[in-house]
Design a protein that fits this description.
The complex is a heterodimer. By secondary structure, chain A is α+β, with helices and mostly antiparallel strands. In chain A, 24% of the residues lie in helices and 25% in strands. Chain A has 16 helices and 27 strands. The chains are: A alpha+beta, B alpha+beta.
Chain lengths: 697, 170
């Protein structure tokens, strides 16, 4: 049990502290850092999908007046570590995917840098590339583990036997598309290398974690942490793609090191982001469900096939939520990868849970249809008493309550009959569950100092738009027992104590826990009447940690879909989610997180799809005109509600993390609603008109 | 080739020399240090750079600076030049109509443009009666704001913020 804070500031509907700066546009993002006399860098990218650079001619580029530096694999500095092939920038002649970095130009202006980059002539020995994912490949392999350290495969009982003997057995294949995070702020860095300075390298970088960013850069460049400072007060969205530094960060640092004393700015173009900034792998999910006539599951299995890059492995943990979501005596999950000549996949909002709750949650809807059961009831019938994977009790689990409250708020009981028609539109409703693990990172330290009648808390945390600037003061205020206006929190700089990455919905759980330890330390040392300069620190590893419970957030999404009977156009006028995520620290910013996640889930269901061109070996629709993301007119009524859930085991705030669960389950709920409206079951995302038209009368 | 131009940015006259290839957006951000307009795509696809150009909303990433000598530009920062937030800006804060903030200055300028367009009676794709004055309904605002992408998904808060600023109870 943790010593739960008494909520005073926590739970208050406070406006964002960074609000004024953001609505004026004066919040400074990485590229915009005001520096003296900056130079501008533009990358040169490989134009073959597999091969070797045989020659680079930089003469035309270097002949341009105003070009300062051209780096190629033969002129770039040798990096200290090339273990991570994605970050071993310009270290070999080998090309592992189209768009990989093969050079960079630094010039006096961005126009010149871009022109000169186009003038760099690169000759290749091109090899046959292999970039198409399928379940039939004979080179699929089992990775040693999947993302976040999960086991690759799990098995319990005998799924095959249960399938053979069940009253109803369902076996279906589902797929999710390739998705790109596409934060609105392109990946960008302002880098300054000043060898004579005490801290020679400064990176103003768009990152979800200044300290992890610095650790990686130090390893790659062979620098000590005291030699590097990373600063990032604001980040224009990341959704995972800025959770680990990609090649652009190393390239920016290398460009700066080639031009000592001169700040260098490097922003990827939107097109470059499609090959250099990570993406979510496409997944193919073979799902098996066996059940008796009452809908009780006797088997649940998911066999996942997905891709990684030949140069670096990333194994999305797509099968993981199936391990714990529903009760069933026989269970199996597997992951197999194809290593292809493709860019390196990485984190995207709710890696694992987001794609992994698509296939199974659609399959449950199909099972409910077969059994003639209400899909809400079917889920409730398979509620496990303890975590099926570990046997541990839940720290708290209110999925059933989310389903029931959602059904009531949505008007589920009055749902229209299948293929209900309203004028030219077919109308249907659908539901799916969502889940996200409650995580806390191992490392984070907060420092609290008293100065001029106020408490200043410092920690190198990040605000991706999640609300950290606003919510950490709420936590600190309650931990110190003071008014929230008396607390100032400073984040986003390695000058502050170390903080973990903003990822896995773990930010507030981790940084808040460190703050609470620091506050209790502070009060223990200095009491209620501190003097100027009094200071205390706290580490997250000193906070109470519960190992005896399985801790997850749960939710349920309900969708109304309308499909045009003649054109197959899909509209989603209503999207409603109910979540059980522990205590909500700030209802205003929390609602935005939930609603934003659901909106991104709608986008995944209907719009997003990185179309792979197997001939050329790249994403064909690599810009925001053709990679469609949900726009304002696509969105109707999106509501997020939450239960007043008290969880004494997770942390002192009682919070579970809310940044990712909104996207989980949403796409399945859309597909289920579209099926109810049309009778067409789309098993391959996204739901586009062509997949519906053939099934419409 | 370089050219000297004068721009009035947020009320101040600024004379600068630009490469004739320089976009109005890069002139603002990289030459003048005016970074309120954001670059999200550089191709007119995301709306993050939206400013008011001679009073109307426009995308400076699709404009060449040299073609706009003498132009008057208002950025989101300029909307609050006297320190007082514009009603659209206050509504965005009240409704939490943003998260990461990167699309926000463009959303704000676009919203100011939308309110003016509706005042002038300009119809949109969502306008049902082309002979009546358009109203700030959900569908009207959502349609008119659809050139401004928000990856954080704040659309359901942006619409009521624009309605609030336009004097409509939402």
């Amino acid at each position: 049990m943790t010593d739960l804070l008494e909520p005073r500031a926590i739970g208050r509907d406070l406006a964002r502290r960074d609000g004024v700066a953001k609505v004026r546009g004066t919040a400074t993002y990485a590229f915009e850092t005001p520096v003296e006399h900056p130079a501008y860098a533009h990358p040169v990218q490989a134009t073959v999908a597999r091969g070797r650079v045989t020659a680079v001619d930089t003469s035309a580029a270097e002949a341009l007046d105003g070009v300062l530096v051209v780096l190629t694999p033969s002129t770039a500095e040798r990096l200290a570590s090339t273990d991570d092939a994605e970050l071993a920038v310009l270290q070999t002649d080998e090309v592992g995917f189209r768009g990989q970095l093969v050079g960079v130009v630094v010039a006096e202006t961005s126009e010149l840098a871009r022109q000169a980059a186009d003038l760099v002539r690169v000759a290749y020995e091109e090899r046959q590339h292999d970039s198409v994912l399928s379940v039939d490949r004979d080179d699929l392999y089992a990775p040693e583990q999947v993302n976040a350290g999960h086991e690759t495969d799990t098995a319990e009982g005998d799924v095959g036997a249960a399938m053979a003997s069940a009253a109803v057995a369902l076996e279906r294949t589902y797929s999710t598309a390739m998705y790109h995070n596409n934060p609105l702020e392109p990946h960008a860095t302002t880098a300054l290398w000043d060898p004579a300075a005490e801290v020679p390298l400064t990176l103003w970088d768009s990152t979800q974690g200044v300290h992890p960013d610095r650790a990686t850069v130090c390893r790659v460049l062979g620098l000590e942490e005291r030699q590097v400072r990373v600063v990032c007060p604001y980040i224009g969205g990341g959704f995972g793609s800025k959770g680990t530094p990609h090649a652009n960060v190393v390239l920016a640092a290398m460009a700066a090191r080639a031009l000592p004393g001169r700040p260098v700015k490097l922003a990827l173009t939107r097109q470059q982001m499609f090959s250099l900034a990570g993406y979510r792998t496409p997944t193919i999910q073979q799902v098996q469900l066996a059940a008796d006539r009452s809908g009780r599951l006797s088997a649940i299995a998911i066999d996942v096939v997905e891709q990684t890059s030949r140069i670096k492995e990333f194994a999305e943990q797509t099968g993981v939520p199936t391990r714990m979501m529903y009760a069933s005596p026989n269970r199996r999950t597997t992951h197999r990868l194809a290593a292809l000549d493709v860019p390196v996949p990485s984190w995207m909002r709710a890696p694992g849970e987001c794609p992994g709750m698509f296939g199974p949650e659609v399959a449950l809807d199909e099972l409910a249809d077969e059994l003639g059961l209400d899909p809400v009831d079917l889920r409730i019938r398979n509620e496990p008493e303890v975590d099926p994977e570990t046997g541990k009790p839940w720290s708290s689990r209110h999925l059933v309550e989310c389903l029931r409250e959602g059904a009531q708020r949505f008007g589920w009981a009055d749902r229209p009959a299948p293929r209900h028609r309203d004028g030219a539109w077919l109308v249907g409703t659908g539901v799916a569950s969502s889940v996200y693990p409650t995580m806390r990172q191992a490392t984070s330290t907060a420092r609290i100092r008293y100065a001029d009648g106020r408490y200043v808390a410092e920690i190198g945390a990040a605000d991706l738009g999640t609300g950290t600037w606003t919510t950490l003061p709420q936590v600190a205020a309650d931990a110190l027992g003071v008014d929230v206006d008396d607390v100032e929190v400073r984040i986003g700089d390695t000058e502050y104590p170390i903080a973990s990455v903003a990822g896995g919905s773990s930010g507030l759980n981790t940084w808040g826990s460190a703050l609470v330890v620091a506050a209790r330390e502070f009060r223990g040392k200095f009491g209620r009447r501190p003097e100027d300069g009094d200071e205390a620190t706290g580490d997250v590893d000193q906070a109470a940690q519960d190992e005896d419970h399985a801790a997850y957030a749960f939710g349920a999404q309900f969708v109304e879909a309308r499909v045009h009977a003649d054109t197959g156009e899909v509209r989603v006028p209503r999207l409603l989610g109910v979540f059980a995520c522990g205590r909500i620290v700030n209802p205003r910013t929390a609602r935005s997180q939930f609603v934003g996640g659901m909106t991104m889930g709608l986008s995944m269901a209907l719009h997003e799809n990185s179309v792979w061109d197997p001939q050329v070996g790249q994403v064909a629709n690599h810009d925001l005109a053709e990679y469609h993301v949900t726009v304002n007119a696509d969105v109707g009524d999106v509501q997020a509600h939450w239960l007043d859930e008290h969880d004494p085991y997770v942390n002192a705030m009682g919070s579970k993390g809310i940044g990712e669960i909104g996207i989980v389950g949403t796409a399945a709920a859309v597909v289920n609603a579209v099926h109810r409206a049309t009778g067409v079951r789309v098993r391959d995302l996204p739901v586009t008109l062509d997949k519906l038209l053939t099934g419409l009368d | 080739m370089d050219a000297e131009i004068t721009l009035t940015v947020d009320g101040a006259a600024r004379t600068l020399t630009v490469d004739t290839r320089t976009t109005l957006l890069d002139a603002l951000r990289e030459r003048l240090g005016v970074t309120s307009p954001k670059k999200g795509c550089d191709h007119g696809q995301c709306g993050a750079c939206t400013v008011l150009l001679d009073g109307d909303r426009a995308l400076p990433c699709l404009a060449l600076a040299v073609a706009h000598d003498g132009a008057e530009i208002t950025t989101a920062d300029g909307l609050a030049a006297d320190g007082e937030l514009h009603p659209v800006q206050q509504a965005f804060i009240d409704r939490d109509a943003f998260q990461c903030g990167y699309c926000t200055p463009g959303q704000v300028c676009s919203a100011v443009g939308v309110l003016a367009e509706v005042d002038r009676g300009w119809p949109s794709h969502a306008t049902e009666d082309l002979t009546a004055d358009p109203q700030l309904t959900h569908d009207e605002v959502a349609e008119r704001m659809s050139g401004n992408l928000c990856r954080c998904g704040a659309y359901v808060n942006i619409v009521p913020a624009v309605q609030q600023a336009g004097g409509v109870q939402a």
